[in-house]
Structure formats: C-alpha cells, structure tokens
Amino acid sequence: MTITVRPFHRSDARDVSEVRHRVLPYGISTPQSVAWEVAEAPAARRLRVLVAEAGGRVVGVVKASVRHDSSTAGQGVVALLVDPGYRGLGVGRALLDAAEGHLAGLGVTHLHAHPHDDPRSLAFAERRGYRRLRVARYLRLGLAHAALPPLPARLPSGTELRTAADFGADPRPLFAVDAEVTADEPDDLTVDAMTYEDWLVHTWEHPDTDLDLTTVVTVDGEIAAFSLAVTDGQGRYGSEMTGTRRAHRGRGLARLAKTDSLRRARDAGCTEAFTSNDAANAPMLAVNAALGYRPFAAEWHCVRELRRARPTGASAGSSSPV
C-alpha cells in the first residue's frame, strides 16, 4: 500500500475529525475546531500539521509544535493519530519521521508525546526513543441518566454561581484564574507562560468552548473556581479544565462548579460527559468519582530527548501548517 504524507488542507478537516473520533472516543472534536486550530495557531507555536493518505483516504494525522506557553525552552509536542484499521502499515512511522524532523530543525531538545496505555502504542513509542513519565486517566459519565448530586439548597455567604458568558465584556479575570490553575497542574512540563492574547483566541474563542455551560464560582464578587466546558453539538460534553484559586482551595468549590456545569449540560441535551486527570491528582479524581465518572481510557506522557541542534534558518520556520 502506498502511503503519502502531505500538509493538512482545510478540506481535510472533516476527515481528520473523524479519525480523531475513532482513535480518541473520549475527545471532543469537530471539523470546525480542527480547521480553526490550524488557521489560528500563533506564530510562536510553529505548528505543522500533516496527514497520511492511503488509497485517497486520510488514514492518519500528526501535529508538531513548540510549547511556546512554557518558560522551559526547547520543548516540542507531537500528537500522532493513526486510523485503527491502518495500524502496522508504516503510517505512524512516516508521519512521526516528518514531525520529528520539523521540530529538530527548530532546535527542539525534548519531544513530548501522549501514546495510549496499550502494549502496541507503548512499544512503538519506546522503539522511537520515548520514555514514560506519567499517566493520565480519562473518565466517562453517562450523563443522560446520571445520578448527579443536587446543588446546595443555600450557597455559602458571598458565593454565587455564574457562567463564563456573564464575563463576555471582560474575560480577563477568568484568564487569570485559568493561568494560575494551569500552572499548578501535575505535569513534567509546566505551562506557565500563557499570555492573555493567546488564551483569548485559543480558549475563550475556541469553537468547541461552551461559555453557557462553563460554570464560574465567585466569592464576594471575585472568581474563585471554574469548570470550563467544551461540546461538539452532538450530545458530547467535555471538562477541559476544572480548578480553584490557591486562596480558596479545600472548600469544595471545584466540585460545586463541576456539578453545576454537568447539570447545565444535561439540561441542554448533552448525553455523554468526559474528563481527564493526572493519575497523581487524587483530589480531582475523588471529585469525579463522587460525580459518577468511571475509568474509560488512559494515556502516557512520554518524552524523547534530542541532541541540541542548531535551528536551520528561514526554511524550517517557513514550513507553515497549511
């Protein structure tokens, strides 16, 4: 079988979204968000998206980018997906060769990837030189018939439940909370250099972000916790991030935010909910278990170290994603 690797085109968005659904049934993806991510990628991310074709069909995709929102230099990310029916035919190898070459040419020293927690995926990653760091748990909740806990009959004094849509005139306070919570997430690569401009475009304006289903908890008028919701318009709901500011932790506000968001989602017609947590994040795993989420899948965070390379010149940087 002849495999062709080429740059992603906007017309590939639906095919890529369908591959994502087959490979990542716990992920929220739409053709609109696939095309948007490429079109709106910040220059500093140096994103390149490639697809693999076999018999005129898109059978795999890889994204290669620089982790520009981390203060740790030289970090690159590769996200590889191969249609289950085409594994073992060299599709993954061809895509990963191209992605790694792109990042090495930019002077990246560490390649981060997230293979599935299954023997075949992990063996492939290890043969490519990736070593395991930590595992993330993906959880599922059948939302249509879930026995969600009720909201408190009375909230603590000064506490209010709002939605992200209420902050449409000025979302910067929500960005500040998101940045603080994200920096505290358990991970071997800290995201601590996110700018408001990037967040505004790539979180607030993301096509899958649902501002009406995103719950924000305020205490005395200031944001204390939130649960960011994404939806695909087909009944699937995802918790992109749930967290509480450091000064307000230990008071159950994250659980309150997530409970309210899930109840809003069910009222809006969502039937299936997904979320994920680092395996070491015991507090949020406990919250999700109490809400009825059950284990569904797992991914490993793996890293491959490269010898420090001198970036190639303009030719490497000009390889625009599409």
In words, what does this structure look like?
This protein has 322 residues and is an alpha+beta fold. It has helices spanning 13-23, 31-39, 91-104, 119-127, 172-183, 196-204, 253-267, 282-291, 314-317; strands at 3-7, 48-54, 57-66, 75-82, 110-113, 131-142, 159-163, 215-219, 222-231, 236-244, 272-278, 294-305. The chain has a twelve-stranded mixed beta sheet with strand order 1-2-3-4-5-12-6-11-10-9-8-7, sandwiched between helices. α1 (13-23) packs across α2 (31-39). The radius of gyration is 20 Å and the shape is globular. It starts with a strand and ends in a 5-residue tail after the last helix.
Coarse morphology: globular
Low-confidence stretches: 309-322
Q: Number of DSSP helices?
A: 9
**Could you tell me the mean pLDDT?**
94
Please write out the topology:
Blueprint: E1 3-7, H1 13-23, H2 31-39, E2 48-54, E3 57-66, E4 75-82, H3 91-104, E5 110-113, H4 119-127, E6 131-142, E7 159-163, H5 172-183, H6 196-204, E8 215-219, E9 222-231, E10 236-244, H7 253-267, E11 272-278, H8 282-291, E12 294-305, H9 314-317
Helix pairs in contact: 1-2
